[in-house]
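dumping the sequnces here before i forget
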Amino acid sequence: MPHKPPTKEELDRRKIIGIHEETITNVTSSDIPYHYPGEDHSWDIEKFRKGFSVEFHQNDPYEASFSLIGCDASIANAFRRIMIADIPTLAIETVFINNNTSVIQDEVLAHRLGLIPFKGGREGLHNFLKWWRKPADESQINSSYYDFNTVSLRLDVKCEHNENATPGEKDPTKLYKHAHVYARDIEFCPVGRQEKYFSGADAIAPVNPDILIAKLRPGQEISLSMHMHKGVGSDHAKFSPVATASYRLMPVISIERPILGKDAEKFARCFPPGVIGLEKVTKKEAAQKGSGYEGHEGELKAVVVDPMRDTVSRECLRHPEFKDKVKLGRRRDHFIFLVESTGQWESDAIFIEAVAHLKKKAKDLEKQVINMVR
Amino acid sequence: MSREQYQVPTNSWSGGFGGSGAPAPRDYAGDNNNTTMTYLCGDCAARVPLEKGAPIRCNKCGARVLYKERTKRMVQFEAR
Ligand SMILES: [Zn+2]
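..and the predicted 3d for all of it:
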């Protein structure tokens, strides 16, 4: 029997992951060579180009949401992992504590400081600043710090009584000076060419100046200096440029048979707001034999408005009145990314950088493979 | 490298850090001589100088709990 090319319905079916009351079906992708006899599924750049698209839903400096449509999970996941663990950022790495008489321990204080996200001039951060490497000979460590690999910061805060506080004042922030130490109290000390790259609005400063670092009481003091270096998230989470970089698959809701009247309202309530809409059954639909709308003209029917907003809670599958009327699924090749930047990079630039990074990795691998074959 | 071994950078190359990275440890020498140690009162937080063999007691409020002062040396930590 000669092989028939797959119909459009069959191709769509292959792309949908089935979501049922208790089970998930059709989990693995099958668009690989030799899976379907007589079908050519070998990877081809032109085929990929035709089927691939990117769609932005939101693009704010610190939060971006976009869809990669028509690519494999391995690629989407590679981008996600690169964004989390391989894009370099600048963070506090060493803390030199001269004095810390606050109740927070030195180690904990140093750890807290390390986690504070910083921003600064893009040109300086991405091009001027280079990696700092610990010298093999530890005695040479002090001659390994240069303006192009180390950024110096200071934090000097002393808590004192506030003489001008009104008698009976209970609020420590009014009763004392510097009762709270915030990220904005950190002072940037530019060295060498750093003046050129990090001045004015481009100065190295915390993204969120209101991060509470420690609380002090009169007589207590924190006096320390810090060194920042470039690093990657695979080394420590503080270097990760993203707060979250995640994707989910596009939900698919297909209403197989009409859901009308009170049922339609209940059906809409099974989903987050905006996913299901209610429309009136038209005269044309009601006249159509076998559509299920006969004699229901003017009644409300449930329609899918925006499946992307669905959380796929499967609530609608719990109710017997919707049995066999609705099918839930997810599109295997539609990845909805959410990238939330910590502030050093623009969130869309993080993704672009991830693409460049994967390309570079692939090129490096190609070189290795060529060497291997030679 | 142990924390105490840390030396302040003294390299004065033009683009280098030339000791501006970590400031020199504060000089507390002269705060006390060999026989007198300063402690902190647990009750009133006053600085209490004590001679060797002197009764352990705050000279301001009479409290008997005294704490040792924190080290005057710079202490280095990794922010991890
Ligand atoms: Zn006392």
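Chain A touches chain B at residues 91-101, 106-107, 110-111, 113-115, 138, 141-143, 145-148, 150, 152, 154, 189, 191-193, 219, 225-227, 236, 238 (CB under 8 Å).
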